[in-house]
Every structure is written in C-alpha cells, then in structure tokens.
Design a protein that fits this description.
Rossmann fold; 2 domains
Amino acid sequence: MEQGFIRMAAATPKIRVADPVYNRERIAAVMGEAAARRAKVVVFPELCLTGYTCGDLFLQAPLLEAAKEQLMVLAHETRQMDLICFVGLPWEHNGKLYNVMAAVSRGRVLGLIPKTFIPNYSEFYEARYFRPGHRKPVDVWVRDMDGQEQTVPFGTDILFVCRQLPGLVIGGEVCEDVWMPDSPSIRHALAGATVIVNASASDETTGKDQYRRSLVEGQSAKLVCVYLYASAGEGESTTDLVFSGHNLIVENGTLLAQSARFVNETAYGDADLERIQSERRRMTCFEVSQDPEYRRIFFDLEPEHLELERFIDPAPFVPDNQKDREKRCEEILALQAMGLKKRLEHTNCRSAVVGISGGLDSTLALLVTVRAFDMLEIPRQNILAITMPCFGTTDRTYGNACALVKRLGAALKEIRIQEAVTVHFKDIGQDQEKHDVTYENSQARERTQILMDVANQHNGMVVGTGDLSELALGWATYNGDHMSMYGVNASVPKTLVRHLVRYYSDTCQDQTLSEVLLDILDTPVSPELLPPENGVIAQKTEDLVGPYELHDFFLYHMMRFGYHPQKIYRMAEKAFHGVYDGKTIIKWLKVFYRRFFSQQFKRSCLPDGPKVGSVALSPRGDLRMPSDACSRLWLEELEELPG
C-alpha cells in the first residue's frame, strides 16, 4: 500500500452446484492464497457460495440458509487475513430473494450489495427468483459465529473506505449491472469510488471474451477507476451453458491482468491508486460529490511495503508491440505534417527552411516537412535544407545530411560558419581555444540567424527541429536552436524520435534512403559544437545530461501523473532493473529535476508546434509553470534516498 500501490485479485474457485459448504472451503482456500500473495482486495464470482446455475433450487430454504451460514463461517475465517473480500450468494430479505455480493473483512460482514438489473432474456431467467436491489441501504440483522448479532447495511449505494489508504474507496455491482447504460458503478465513481468490484457469472460464447474485456476496459477508462471483474468458471452446471472463469483487472482503461479461460485461476494485479487520483485531479469535468445517500463503511488494512509484480514500461512513450508501434508512428507523422500543412496554408507560404545536421531531430523535421509539402502538392525543391558545418562537424554527419537531402529531393545549401563565428569571437573578445558555453552557443545562434535570414529571402518559414526531451532538460541554446517559426518535433520525446525515423526507413521503399536513415540512427546524439577527436564525435549528449531513456521515463511520470520523486525512483528501479543501478538512477533524476525547474524560462517562450501525445510542454497548452519556481521540495525528497 506504499505510494498508492496495492495488490488486488479476481478469483474463480472450482465449485459444486448447491453445495455451500464445499464452495466456502474452496473460497477460503483461495482467500488464503491471495492473502499469502499480499493481495488486499479480492473479488469472487456471482452467487459462488451456491453456484449461479442452481435454477429452482434457489427457492429451497435449505440452500438459502446454508449459504447464509457459510457466509458467516467465511467471514470468521478472515479474522487473521489482512484483506477485504467480495463473495456472491442469494439473500432473502422481507420475503423476497436478492442476488447479492457480500463484503467480508477481519471476521465481519461489512455490507451486502444487491444486483440492480435482473436479466430475463436469452439464456438468463433470473427474474424467476430474484428481485432488483434498492439503492438506499437499510440495516439487516445477521448472527456471527460467536452468536453475536450485528446489523449490516443492505443496498447498492454503499462505499467501503480504507482508513489507512484514503485513496482506496470500493463500490460494487453484480454482473449484468455493468452491461447497462446507467450502471451503478457510474454513481459509485461520482460518489468517490476509486475501485469497482464486479461479481459476475458471464457464460462463454464465441467471441464474448473480447467484448467483455472491451466493456470492462471502457468502463474503467470512463470512470477513471480500477475495475475488478471475477466471473464464474468450472464447477457450474453445463446443462445449457459453459462458464470460463474470465477474470479481469483494469486500471483506467489499461489491462493489468487477466486470467486464462477454462482453468479457474486467479488474476493478480498491482493497482496504482495514486494514478487514479492524479487523473481525476486533472480532469476538471470529473466531479466527485459526497452524496449523503451513500453509506460509507470503514475497514482496516495493515500498511506494508509491496515488492511490485506490476510491469512498469521503461519506454512509456513507445508501444512495445510492433504493430501498435507502427500505427503510433504513422499517426504521429500525420499529426506533425498536418500541423505544418495548416501553418503553411494559413501564411500562404510555399517555401520552408530546415537546418540539417545529420542528426535525428533535424532528420525527422525534414521528413515531416517533405510529407507536408507532398500533401499541399508543393514541389520538394521548395524545401531549402541548409547544412552549416563548423568546428565540431564530422564527416559522417555532414555526409549523411547531404545524402538525406538529395535523396528526398529537397534543395541543399551549404553555408560554412567557421569564419563568421571566428569574427564574432573577435568582436566580443572570446578566446577561440576556450571551449566554454559561449564557444558552443555562438555557433548555435549563428546557425539560427542564417536560417531566419534565408527564410526571409525566400519568403519562407523556419521549421524547428528541437524535441520534447531537449525542451524538458533545457538542452537548447536560448534564441538559438530553441527558436523557429514552427516546431514540428516540440512534443515528440527523444526515445520516440528514433522509432519514427526507423519507421520511415522501414516503409520508404527506397533502399538508398533507408541506408542513410539507418546510419543516422546509429550515430551518437551530439550537438557537435566541440572539435572532434581523430575525426570522431567528441561531445556525446547523453554523457553530459544523462540517458534519454531515463529522462523520458522521469518526464512521463512527473508530467502525466504528478508522482513524488521517490515513487518515480522506485518505478525506475523496477523498469530498468539490470540496466541502471540505483545510484545511477538517483544521479540522473536529480539532474532532471534541477534542469526541469531551472530551464523553464526557455519553455515559456516556445514557438508553436503540434501536440501529438499525452505529455507536452507548451506554455499555451499543457504546462503553465512560473519560470522562477523553486525545486526544493522535489530535490529534498530525493536526498532522503540512499546513495
């Protein structure tokens, strides 16, 4: 439960129809296994204490009484278990029968949630036995194993709130409820539930598993919640139906875990409740109200450190699946090109200027510009790609820059800037042998001046090349490469730039162009502002500011969810296990926060550029941050970490 992480489980025990004693034994055994795995929230299938397929046996008093008795036994068995469980059973109230889900924890029955929507179509005939549940909770009496009577709330509008983890607020619904347009889970989420549990008995038919998964994922995303769905499986009657035990754990639309079908297994997932809280906090239209009609039942869980079993993606900006990655790349290239296309149309501009270095960012900017010009049916020769060699330029990057431009059919112009920069050094009294920040930035600003002036000559616009990762770190020369007339890469992180260029290489159907792009991909990232050593790049960006894969990871989790630095560190340790040790991660995480705060002034005056993903740093859109905000809180938290 540390830092919002909590393990949850959706379980399907093997049962016997109409045998509550046997079923309780199997449920208790699975509960014990879940407790041993440190799961804190466990949901079991609909009517699992009796079996869903009892038919007219639901009208038999012995079955109903046995189910209630075994619920009390089951509750008693949770006394030494640190969890809350949800179990389905039939329940008689005021002479009518209800399909309920009981919440049990630490020896007590905490509440009874009745099913709202009773299906009576196709293979379902529940209305023969059950009545729809009522919303407003009423108190019913139960007798525990010690003979003590207690009242238990009975109704749909109940929330179970953990005292030790305020972010854990659980609401429940039963099977058919989630399939309905006005499902109870909507009310629960708007009343504050962050977790929805569903005890279900969804029979299996061809293709239904895909629909079921889509439904649960959609409900979780819509309600910004964790959704636990447990379905009946082996042991139910197969007179007419087969049940597969398809269990799902979904977090804000993302599938954390699902069980294999037809094997009655438990799905475990480490949910992140802080992620849920963060999403709701930023969604100003998601209004949670303290509905006075809801009954809030408090329960206890022991706080403990959890060794995460959750997969944490080391590259959150890049889909792991190749098909998804290719789709994402095509979509982003289209977004970038459409953004530039609109700007060109609006300004009646039929010419563009791109500074081309032979590096990844300028390569992507040129590829996007070519696509935009093709959309507008403007000749590619109207794209003026300028290479500006200086003190740090190597033959490799120079050759790749020239080859790329020629192969794409753009116009190539070479302007060597050594002499101009040397004159500038004399003007300002800069020692050319002093390779400091002035030495480096003078080159970057000279290049930008050339691009702007040439754009004026051709009545064109300068297309910017800087990417999201560089903007986050402030790794740009203010009013140098920091500036352009439209920045097509402004919201593309460095880890994704590589995949976009590789995707273009894989799909361009031009062997020569592909070879050039692959060599650019193989070239170390560098601004090439310091003289090379023996003809090889001497200045490698990632040696200076740290690995971009780490910084992109930090950026995503800081901006997307507002996580604490210590949580980001913990997640990075898990994601990059075996790649970077803890000291290395802390070192670069400190660099990230220092630079992110100190370099905001560069982001406060960014050129326009298209947003392509969920994380962006535009001062007009996603990040309204003072340029002089203090980083003390974040850095002090990191100082508490070992190493």
